[in-house]
Amino acid sequence: MDSKYKELLIKQQYRLHNDHAAVKLCHWMRQSLIYGRNCYKQDFYGIESHRCLQMTPAINECDHMCRFCWRVQGHDFQVNEWSEPKEMLDSLIAHQRKLLTGFNGDERCSKERYEESKYPNMVAISLAGEPIRYPYLSDFIKECHNRKMTTFMVTNGTYPDELASLDVLPRQLYVTVAAPNKEVYRQTCMPKIDDGWERLMRTLELFPSLDTRTVVRHTLVKDLNFGWVDEYAKLDNIADPDLIEPKGYVFVGGSRTRLSMANMPSHPEILDFSERLAERTGMAVLKQKPDSRVTLLGRPGTETDVKKLYASEETRLCACRKVISPSDL
Question: What string of DSSP letters covers 218-252?
């Protein structure tokens, strides 16, 4: 990794392991600890914002240059040595604990939430890069599950063969569908590869066969990829996901050099889009979070709470799982 790139990441409060994996406290981690405000994922899925490990195993491995992306872009390099899953997870948890230490002296921070935050039970494999490029991803997900940690993973959909070959899938798998057609895809996602759209279509075709909960996420940017409800619905019907998350673009991070605040849809606009999309996919708007400009679509009666959804599996497997204690990290 280039030293200047590394310095930039550290300045932005990333913490790195072996130059390819990283962890970073998200906005909602801070909001949860200080003000008790929750990420929309807590409201939608029952995970705890202050116990979430937002990480990536492959920080620079992305074949998109999405215009709406808030992450650091344009610093590609080859990874020569990939870390083993247990070593990587232990290191990232330790890094996150160091990042959290400042909250311990803040009078606004709940002591109970601070203590809980040191023991994450949710791994968001979504911080940056394309996680499928990490060669030991199945083993990493298995390691998380063995520690009784829920896993959510986001893919850009351009690695269908690698996705199909995973032995272990995350508890919840997202694919980002940020365009209704190939031309808008090129303008929005700025792919580095020639067949990105075709690969994404193969991933959508694969989705119904995957034995995990599947979610299509639409990141929507005004005057770029927002609209085209009928075309988005056709793609969603191919993927046949359990849930759909239409989410409005937010003017933060690196995207501020490419877009403007005028590109942010309002929550009423996202809700209107969602209701029309729901009609075309046989779904309904199950939940919404106005301050995050996001809705959740699913079939009426769909259980979204991840704890309830996997309660029976956790009960079945808990006898053979090792609960990790502080001394193990």
Answer: EEE-TTTT---HHHHHHHHHHH--SEEEEEE----
CB under 8 Å to 315, separation ≥6 — which residues? Answer: none
What CA–CA distance (Å, rounded) separates 279 from 275? 6
From the number of C-beta atoms within 10 Å of its C-beta (0-12, 13-18, 19+), residue 22 rates as: buried
- Ranges of each domain in the chain: 3-299
Q: Which helix (H) or strand (E) holds 272?
A: helix 267-281
Instruction: Please state which CATH class domain 3-299 belongs to.
Output: alpha beta
Coil, strand, or helix at residue 56? strand
87-109 per-position pLDDT tens digit: 999 999 999 999 999 899 888 99
Give pLDDT tens digits for 284-317.
999 999 999 999 999 998 989 887 777 655 544 4
DSSP secondary structure letter of residue 255: G
